[in-house]
Amino acid sequence: MVARSLQALLLLLAAPAAVHAAIDPLSIGGACCGAAALTAAASLKIVTTGNTCLIERMGRFHRQLNPGWHWTIPILEATSMYGTVREQVMDVPPQQCYTRDNAPVQADAVIYLRVFEMQAARYNVADLQTAIMNLVLTQLREEMGKLTLDETFSSRDRMNRNLLEDVNLATRAWGVEVTRVEVRDIEPSPDIVKAMELQMSAERQKRATVLDSEASAIQSINDANAKATSLRAQAEAEKDAVVLAAEATARKMDIEAGGLARSLTAVAEGDASGRSLMLPGNPE
C-alpha cells in the first residue's frame, strides 16, 4: 500500500499541470500519507538489548545508538555497524605447530571475547574476526614452539595464560577484550603417536622387569633371613644340647666322686676299726 502510494506521488509530481487538475485530491492526500509513513519507517532504528549501532552522517561517523528506538535522517545518515556487546565465542581451527623438540602437532583453541568499544572495533581494524583469528594462530604457534612435546600436555594452563595476555595486548586497541583463551586439542602426528605408544610399552615392560627383579630380591632376602633364622635356631638347639650334656656329665662325675669319697671314707673307717681290735689288752 505504501509503495503504491509513493508511486502515485511520483507520477503526480512528474505529470503536467493539466493532469494535476484532473487528479482527485484524495489520491494526492493518500500518496502524501504513504510517503510520510515510508519516510518514518526508514528513519526509525530499533536497537535491541545487548546490541549497539553506529551511525554515519554523510560518510563520517556521527553517533552510537544504544538499545531503544532512535530516529535517523534518511539518505544523509546510514548504519555503519550493528553489533553485539555480549560475550562471543570464536573457534580457532586446527593449526600445524612445531614444539621446541621439533615434534609436529595439530592444535586448536576457543576464544571468548567481548566488544567494549564498538567504534574502535569498526574503524581501527578492517576485519575484526580475521585479525583476531590470525593473531591467536600466530601466538598459538609461538607458545607451542616454547615447549617440548611432553610439556604441551601438562602445561595447558600456562599456555592459556600466556595466550590471553599476548592477545589482549593487541585487541584492546581494537575495542575488544579477550576474556578467556582455551587450548582444546593437541594431536601429534601419526608417527609421533606410534613412537609414543612404543615408548609407553617399553616403559611398562621396564617397570614390569623392575618389579620382577625387586620381587626376586625380596624373595631372596626373605629366603636368606629364613635360612639364617633356621641356622640360629639349630645352633641354639645344639648349644643347649651340649650344655645339657656337659651338665649331665658334670653331675655324673660329681655323683661318682661323691660315691668314691664315701667308699674311701668307709674303707678308711673299716681299717681303723680293725687295727683297734688287734691292739694288746683287748678283751677279746
Topology:
Layout: H1 2-14, H2 17-22, H3 25-43, E1 44-47, E2 51-57, E3 60-65, E4 68-71, E5 77-84, E6 88-98, E7 104-115, H4 118-123, H5 128-145, H6 149-154, H7 156-171, E8 176-188, H8 190-278
Antiparallel strand pairs: 1-4, 2-3, 2-5, 6-7, 7-8
Helix pairs in contact: 1-3, 5-7
Q: Can you give a write-up of this model?
A:
The structure is a single chain. 61% of the residues lie in helices and 23% in strands. A hairpin with a 2-residue loop joins strand 2 and strand 3. The strands form 3 sheets. The protein has a 3-stranded antiparallel sheet. The protein has a 3-stranded antiparallel sheet with strand order 6-7-8. A two-stranded antiparallel ribbon has the order 1-4. It is rod-shaped and about 180 Å long. It is an alpha+beta fold and 284 residues long. Mean pLDDT is 81; it is low at 1-6 and 17-22.
Summarize the structure.
With 284 residues, the chain is α+β, with helices and mostly antiparallel strands.
Radius of gyration from the CA trace? 56 Å
Which residues form runs of ≥5 with pLDDT under 50?
A: 1-6, 17-22
In round numbers, the mean pLDDT is 81
Helix count? Answer: 8
Structure summary, number of beta strands: 8
Query: Per the principal axes of the C-alpha atoms, what is the gross shape?
Result: rod-shaped
Spatial ordering of strands, largest sheet: 3-2-5
Distance between the termini: 188 Å
Strand content: 15-25%
One letter per element, helices H and strands E, the order comes to HHHEEEEEEEHHHHEH
